[in-house]
UniProtKB/TrEMBL annotation:
Matching Pfam families: Hemerythrin
Residue ranges annotated for the Hemerythrin-like domain, each copy included: 13-146
Record InterPro entries: Dimeric_xanthone_biosynth, Hemerythrin-like
Protein name (record): Hemerythrin-like domain-containing protein
Amino acid sequence: MTTTESGQVDTREMLVIHTALRREYRLAPALVRAVAPGDAARARVISEHLDFLNNMLHHHHSGEDRLLWPKLLDRVPAELAPIVQLMEQQHHQIHDTLEQTGAAMARWREHAAAADRDQLAESLERLYAGLTEHLAAEEEHILPLASRCLTPAEWGQLGEEGMESVPKNQRAMIFGMLMYEGDPQVIAMMLAQAPLPARLIVPVLGRRAFARYARRVHGTPTP
């Protein structure tokens, strides 16, 4: 974990995560709509991808709920508390939409019916709209507060617990997903504390793993 020249915590790795979430959820409705009615095999592939995204988002938000909002509410001036409370409220709204999306996906996964497919795609569009609004507000208001109010160790705990929640067999792919549109300088910062062999090999393995994953889900090595 690094600090900026002003001594504040460098929160840019959150932007890398947000970029990946925005991209994958933006593409998700079209992926669902492209599945032909009755093609249950393809529906399962896309459903597994959506399960992965939803779990990734859930763990990301759970970490903020436990490790970020309480600290900020305790440390920011009273007039800024409503901003943090808005973030909490948006998390609840996104959680509700995630549950609706999960229910629609469960119905569609089994038979790949056209009506269930369309309902799922519409639910994903609502999820994407709420998510992009939330991420933009978080980047504008919360990351500057976090950079001033949290210690490097506290901010690092968010990333560490987020990584611990990821199965080991998915970590290379996720890193490749983050690398795909992530700021190279920030990616290098994220690797900086790793041993030299890991700094050399993880980017290679990540690119390959994400290319295989994207080919299976999107039909091309890149989404």
